[in-house]
Amino acid sequence: MRSWLYTITTNTCLDLIARRPKRVLPIDYGPAADPHDGPGEPLVESVWMEPYPDGNLGLEDGFAGPEARYERRESVELAFIAALQHLPANQRAVLILREVLGFSAREVAETLGTTTASANSALQRARAAVDERLPEQSQQATLRSLGDDRLRELVDAYVDAWERCDVDAVVGMLTEDATFAMPPLRTWFGPRDSIALFLAGFPLGGDWRWRAVPVRANGQEALAFYSWDEEQQSYLPFALNVLTLRGDLISDVTAFLIRSTEIPDRHVIARLPEQPADPDRLAAAFGRFELPGELSA
Fold it and tell me: Which residues pair with 210 in a beta bridge?
């Protein structure tokens, strides 16, 4: 039954991939934007990957030891990079089936309707291509080197800085070459000085109030951000931010916005707090994580 279901699912996904545009992140889509202009318009058709909770992938299995859990998270991290379409669809499928789902070469070949030799060859090519894009140290190795206590300190400090709208504190936690992206908006900002200008002019300019809930997504640290709604007198879902660490600094922030971006003027971000939640994005970025629909004051 398991092999049969994965065969159907894999081939359905491959058919969809063949008909849709490339799914990348804003950083792969175009150059950095001018932070004075704020985010530009969203793409008409969403091409972005979505955050996925570690819990749904069995990464927090209570019966697995610490090393086994790190290995599982590393496999998801690898798959996430592969899934950004740095790989052809068949290579991506082989990599995920083998490295994440633990299928044998024979099972993969049967799933894809090919030979075991072809499946092994595709896996070798996929690994080589992904190795070229992997950082010197994986996120799991970085988290392991920091330790749980230091990691929690960093996340708590980042949340505290956002909730106080302290631009200097937030920027002080970023690497010099950091990036900040907000799919489905096509624009992204970097390096650190440009991010500082954007944060000061928009989300941390003092007009918005924030609360955050820590989660884990795509094998990485993440934060579900809520913004204050005066009419509702509560904090409502706004974005799920996935953090990439380098040492004890943040090198990349990918904020998956859940508010509707169907706004006629170019300065989208300034009016996002007024916009209702987009049902599909809300389900993908908050519903999957079983996060609350609002936070009290």
Answer: 227
Distance (Å, whole) CA 35 – CA 269: 12
DSSP annotation of 99 reads I
CATH of 145-287, one of 3.90.180.10, 3.10.450.50, 3.30.390.10, 3.10.450.40: 3.10.450.50
The CA-based diameter of the chain, rounded to the nearest angstrom, is 61
> Residues 159-211: pLDDT tens digits?
999 999 999 999 999 999 999 998 888 789 999 999 999 999 999 998 899 99
d(CA 97, CA 82): 12
| Nearest CA among 167, 95, 149, 148 for reference residue 126 | 95
Phi, psi at 122, each rounded to 5°: -65, -40
**At CA 222, angle to CA 57 and CA 77, rounded to 5?**
50
The ranges assigned to domains in the chain are: 2-30+61-133, 145-287
Q: How far does CA 134 lie from the centroid of its chain?
A: 16
Please tell me whether the overall predicted TM-score, pTM, comes out greater than 0.90 for this model.
no
Compute the 3-state secondary structure of the chain and give helix, strand, coil in percent, each to the nearest 5.
45, 20, 35
What does the block give as tokens for 52?
Answer: 């996925």
Q: Classify 178 as helix, strand or coil.
A: strand
CATH of segment(s) 2-30+61-133 = 1.10.10.10
Residues 68-115: pLDDT tens digits? 665 666 666 666 665 556 788 889 899 889 987 889 999 999 999 999
Instruction: Give dist(CA 296, CA 49) in Å, integer.
Output: 30
Sort strands 174-181 and 234-246 into parallel, antiparallel or unpaired: unpaired
